[in-house]
Amino acid sequence: MIYFAQYVCSGILLGLLYSMVALGLTVVYRSGRIINLAQGELVIVGGFLIWWFIVMTPLPQWWMGIIIAFALMGLLGLVIERAFFRPLIGQPIFSLVMMTIGLLLLLRGVVIATFGAKERPFPQIFSAEPVVLGPFSFDSALFWGGIIALLIVLALAWFFERTKYGLRFSAVAEDHQVAQSMGISVKQSVAVAWVLATILGGFASIVFFNGKIVTFLASEIGFRALPVALLAGLESVRGVLVAGIIVGIGEMLAMGYLNPITNGGMANIFPYIVMIVVVLFKPQGLYGWRVIERV
Amino acid sequence: MLVVELMLKLDNVEVKYLDAVLALKGVSLEVADGAVFAVLGGNGAGKTTLLKSISGILHTDEGEVTSGGIYFDDYRLDKLPPEDIVKLGIVQVMEGRRVLEHLGTEQNLLAGAHLRSDRAGVKRDLEKVYNYFPKLKALKRQSAGYLSGGEQQMLVVGRALIARPKIMLLDEPSLGLAPLIAREIFDVFKRLNEEESITILLVEQNVNAALSIARYGYVLETGRVVLKGTSSELLINEDVKEFYLGLSLSGKRRSYHDVKHYKRRKRWLG
Ligand SMILES: Nc1ncnc2c1ncn2[C@@H]1O[C@H](COP(=O)(O)OP(=O)(O)OP(=O)(O)O)[C@@H](O)[C@H]1O
Ligand SMILES: [Mg+2]
């Protein structure tokens, strides 16, 4: 029983990390119906930048490295929007998705060319000591990361729903033409969405790489977050919390109870099973927007 | 007569869609400060195109002002992006009750105030909207997508009102509404014009309703202004009666064939 509870609690934390990555997918989707398959690469870029500025440059304080890395991530978001997606305004969704694949490969190439094959130990930003709560113990990065993810999601949801500035983004998510007729700059909103996505990638990279080695393998988290965003419903900000927690718990339970009898494969593919089930049976996800048809 | 301070002026405006479809063929039109102006015309006449060219959202349909100019005070509107045009105080309420479906009624209204920074003023104007459209107040937490057609029309007008426009561009607000509701909404337009001094450019196919509140009207046909005059002039004009009110001299509706033929023969003059 204690194992079960530990799996569930760890699953929640893992799920919150997925939520943070999925939120990057959601904000970009809301801005222009783009499913960004390169979100995992944004996590990688964040990881490399933070590693570079903290470990490889003689900055006096580690947090300065984080600030510079985040600023560069934000800039990257602006460049991505301006160079790759603005020219595609009005193009079919298919072109947009293909462009995100191009972006994925390009980012990977640029990172390899820039940083080369070095040993890349990511700094220990969260303590290596686990956080112990009663009978449970948690990886401290996942623990604090989960709390940060929770706060970010709730803050963004509040922003989009309750503030005048945030309502602009909700209007853009509903209808570009209506948004423009209301005097909202769609271009600006899309650019901000990309900046949010890259910054979220930066946050996720800290939680994910904390005290580990920075590698490209981590980019899979972008794909693992996709089922979370889909299960939430691609328009739903708050929904990524619930969906992330469901997927996270499912994955940890699969790891605990199914991996031993499936040679360790089940936990790995669990999110993708969720994805297939959602697409087949509930394409709008839990909280996604349905086309409203009044009688 | 209309010798009030001039506000909005279209000078020989030509609009093309996709570099191919000529939708406005040299439209000149003037909107003076503080009155209601009607633009009448049948389907495909170019009414929506006219409003979109003023509000700048034409480009979202791959449309473009290819010659002529649109002027508002000292600005040249056809060179400005839509967000700047809204900032100047020109707000379009699009055809088809385009509410933000998944947001609540009040959120729709607040979204309309996104350019304003005076919190207290926004709050006051929110109450003002509820005062003009009391039905909306009871529905303020309801998802806008589930409102009735009439309520949605009230909502989009309210959303424009809360932006504090100088000019409202209204595109077929009565379309698909029961006559009673349409009447109610038109009464509000009249009040907005009188009480809030909002100038209104009203596109309608419902000629009677439009001319009942407008001071002046333009009739548009296949991209051209073919007739203009004060509302009372237009209401007694035989051609308007015939084509838009469906009354011929003998009091009978003419068949479509006759109308078409007549249209081709007749040269309209302003
Ligand atoms: N996006 C577009 N692309 C190409 N042609 C267009 C486009 N929008 C409108 N048109 C054409 O421009 C002309 C004017 O259309 P517009 O929508 O302005 O007419 P309207 O007077 O508003 O008609 P309705 O009363 O039916 O709304 C029509 O011939 C139409 O086919
Ligand atoms: Mg129209």
- H/E series of chain A, N to C? HHHHEEHHHHHHH
**CATH H level, superfamily name of the domain at 6-89 and 202-269 in chain B:** P-loop containing nucleotide triphosphate hydrolases
Low-confidence stretches of chain A: none
Mean pLDDT of chain A: 93
CATH topology of chain A: ABC transporter involved in vitamin B12 uptake, BtuC
What is the topological layout?
The complex is a heterodimer of chains A (295) and B (270).
Chain A: H1 2-32, H2 39-56, H3 62-85, H4 93-115, E1 131-133, E2 136-138, H5 140-162, H6 164-174, H7 176-181, H8 186-209, H9 220-232, H10 239-258, H11 266-281
Antiparallel strand pairs in A: 1-2
Chain B: E1 6-17, E2 21-32, E3 36-40, H1 47-55, E4 63-72, E5 75-76, H2 82-87, E6 90-93, H3 105-112, H4 119-132, H5 134-138, H6 149-161, E7 167-171, H7 179-195, E8 199-204, H8 207-213, E9 216-221, E10 224-230, H9 231-236, H10 238-243, H11 256-265
Parallel strand pairs in B: 3-8, 3-9, 6-7, 7-8
Antiparallel strand pairs in B: 1-2, 1-4, 4-5, 9-10
Helix pairs in contact in B: 3-6
Could you explain the architecture of this structure?
- The complex is a heterodimer of chains A (295) and B (270).
- With 295 residues, chain A is mainly α.
- Helices cover 71% and strands 2% of the residues of chain A.
- In chain A, helix 1 (2-32) crosses helix 6.
- The mean pLDDT of chain A is 93.
- The longest helix of chain B is centred in the C-terminal third of the chain and has 17 residues, at 179-195.
- In chain B, a hairpin with a 2-residue loop joins strand 4 and strand 5.
- Chain B has 11 helices and 10 strands.
- Chain B is 37% helix and 26% strand.
- Chain B has a domain at 6-89 and 202-269: P-loop containing nucleotide triphosphate hydrolases (Rossmann fold, 3-Layer(aba) Sandwich).
- Chain B has 270 residues and is of the alpha/beta class.
- Chain B is globular and about 45 Å long.
- At the A-B interface, helix 6 and helix 7 of A face helix 2, strand 6 and helix 3 of B.
- Magnesium ion binds next to helix 1 of chain B.
